[in-house]
Specification:
Number of domains: 1
Strand content: 15-25%
Number of strands: 7
Number of helices: 3
Largest sheet: 7 strands, antiparallel
Structural class: alpha+beta
Shape: globular
Distance between the termini: 15 Å
Helix content: 10-25%
Order of helices and strands: EHEEEEHHEE
């Protein structure tokens, strides 16, 4: 995944309309990122810092609908997301286990890819 910006959100199929579904409460999302050694540099901050990433939350948003992940160091981001030695990285596991989706706005590619009964909108 060569992009430097990703959007993290719950996947929606093209036919679905309406508001985004939450990723979780602010506390739940912060807990998930804390397990990846990623957190704010001061209490109440909307920016989290971790190995190879900077995560931006919307101010005072609870529950969290989406967030931005900026890749700051590709060498650190790759093992965090893709993992190494055949194991998926912590971020990749968190995305899958929570039913989230990383979306690359530059290439229009989601991870994991959308799969549903209507093959026309699958990517």
């Amino acid at each position: 995944m060569p992009s430097s910006l990703y959007i993290l959100q719950r996947p929606r199929h093209k036919r679905d309309v309406g508001a985004l579904e939450p990723l979780g409460t602010r506390a739940e999302v912060l807990h998930v990122f804390a397990s990846m050694n990623t957190g704010p540099d001061r209490s109440g901050s909307d920016v989290l810092f971790g190995p190879g990433i900077r995560v931006e939350l919307r101010p005072n948003e609870d529950p969290i609908l989406q967030l931005m992940i900026h890749v700051t160091e590709e060498e650190l981001f790759a093992p965090l997301f893709q993992g190494c030695e055949g194991e998926i990285g912590r971020l990749g596991r968190a995305v899958r286990s929570h039913g989230w989706q990383l979306y690359d706005p530059m290439s229009d590619i989601p991870y994991p890819p959308i799969r549903d009964e209507d093959d026309e909108d699958d990517r």
